[in-house]
Structures are given as C-alpha cells and as structure tokens.
Amino acid sequence: MARKHKKEDPLHAALEALKRVSEAFARRRAQLARGAGLTEAQWRVLEQIAAEDFMPSLFARRQEQTPAAISKLIRQLLERGLVEVSIATGDARQRRYALSAAGRQAMEIVRKDRQRAIDRIWSGLDPRDLATFSAFAADLAERMERYEKSETRRKSENSRPEKTHRGGAGVRK
After folding, report:
1. Pair 63, 44: CB distance under 8 Å
2. For a FRET experiment, which of 25, 35, 71, 161 has its CA 20 to 30 Å from that of 10?
3. How far is the C-alpha of 143 from the C-alpha of 27, rounded, in Å?
C-alpha cells in the first residue's frame, strides 16, 4: 500500500515546490514564445542561430531531435522571413544561417518580455536568499546530472549481450 506523505515532510515539500517552479518556467517559456509569434522550438532555433556558428545536425543531437525535425523548423523560419541562409565561404557544402531583421525583432520582443518578468519577479528577493537558492540549485543540478550519467551507463552495461566462453557459460563483463 502506498505511504501517505505528511505535508511537513521536507523532501516531498521540496519536490512539490520544484515541480511547481519547473511547470511555471515551462508555461512562462511558452508564453514568451507566443508573445513573439513563435513556438518554443522555433525560439530555441532562433536563439542558436543568433549565437552564430549554428550547425543544424549538432543542434539536433543536443536537443535529442532528428535532423529532419530541425530542418522542418528551419524551413518554417525561412518561410516566415525570420532567418536568412547563405552558402558558407570556403565550403559550398556548408550553409550559414543568420537572423533576418524580422528574426532579430522577434528575439528582441522575447528579450524585453523576459527582462520585464525578471525585474518584476526576482528584483524584490533578498540577495542572500538568491545566493542560497543559486548554490542549492547548482548542487541539485550536478547531482541530477551525475545520476543521469550513472543510470545511462548502468542501462547500457545491462543491455550488452553476454560473452560466452567455450564451456557455454555466459559471463557478463
């Protein structure tokens, strides 16, 4: 039978608070994108293009997306006139992506809306609380990343086929 957690349980209270913060960030990110007439995925691509040296295949890998999905997003952005593409100098196989004037304007809308929210939400918080939160969040992120790596490693080791010796007994290395 599942154990009921008391409201005073600090672990579950922290998990619930983190869930609320995460959901609020996700809703706010979607709201920011919509405010500039973008989807969140389009915004992510525009952010990367604005950072220069954008490589669709590398971006797809980092976002755990297929290259075809990223190509579709780029086509949408091209059709809307938010991105310009040219052939890279020195290597005609490479494409160079850049924000158009409309793309820069969309990103400026997002930047201003984001800054307004930061000013309203975060500016009144005590700097000591922010420092404590920042240290805690960094530690939590590091723990989560380490756990993710160890789980990935563990699962890949468990999915490897067993090696057999001549005697036929399976030996897992």
Report:
1. yes
2. 25
3. 25
Which residues of the chain fall short of a pLDDT of 50? Answer: 1, 173
For 27-45, the pLDDT digits (tens) are 999 999 999 999 999 999 9
What are residue 84's phi and psi, to 5 degrees? Answer: -120, 145
**Cα–Cα dist 14/9, whole Å:** 9
Token readout for 93 is 């196989």
> CB atoms < 10 A from the CB of 98, how many?
14
Q: How far apart are CA 17 and CA 11, in angstroms?
A: 10
pTM, full prediction: 0.73
Give one DSSP letter per residue of the chain, joined into a string: -PPPPPTT-HHHHHHHHHHHHHHHHHHHHHHHHHHTT--HHHHHHHHHHHTS---HHHHHHHTT--HHHHHHHHHHHHHTTSEEEEEPTT-TT-EEEEE-HHHHHHHHHHHHHHHHHHHHHHTTS-HHHHHHHHHHHHHHHHHHHHHHHHHHHHHHHHHSPPEE-TT--EE--
